[in-house]
Amino acid sequence: xxxxxxxxxxxxxxxxxxxxxxxxxxxxxxxxxxxxxxxxxxxxxxxxxxxxxxxxxxxxxxxxxxxxxxxxxxxxxxxxxxxxxxxxxxxxxxxxxxxxxxxxxxxxxxxxxxxxxxxxxxxxxxxxxxxxxxxxxxxxxxxxxxx
Length: 147
Known about the structure:
The chain is an alpha+beta fold. It has helices at about 1-15, 30-45, 55-60, 75-85, 115-120, 125-145; strands at about 25-30, 50-55, 70-75, 95-105, 105-110. It has a single domain (about 20-145), classed as TATA-Binding Protein (2-Layer Sandwich). It is built from six helices and five strands. It has a five-stranded antiparallel beta sheet. Helix 2 (about 30-45) crosses helix 6 and helix 4 (about 75-85) runs antiparallel to helix 6 (about 125-145). The radius of gyration is 19 Å and the shape is globular.
């Protein structure tokens, strides 16, 4: 019995750990083209570009090198209403953030990691909404990649 317990413990310790990651999508593009494409992809899902933080431009104006990074915020009026109904604290997560990173002629768009949010909001209405947002963002990223 003790050997079986040790075997089980060893198997648990050696099993691959699955870490949650942000959703991502990449394609060949310039940063400007990627911003246009992700804005269009968001619009296809009734979302709008709320804010564009051109970190790359801001740093260059201050004499730093171009980090090739931008942060976009997208959202919808529907997401706000649903968040308010499910758990008003979810409003703190809106608008949803997308980070764009340009490297070697490719632009990768990534979301925040939803796993910490799912842990922070364990109640069912909030869980359902967070999962729906994750699915919707996956669809937006897929649209971006296929444009």
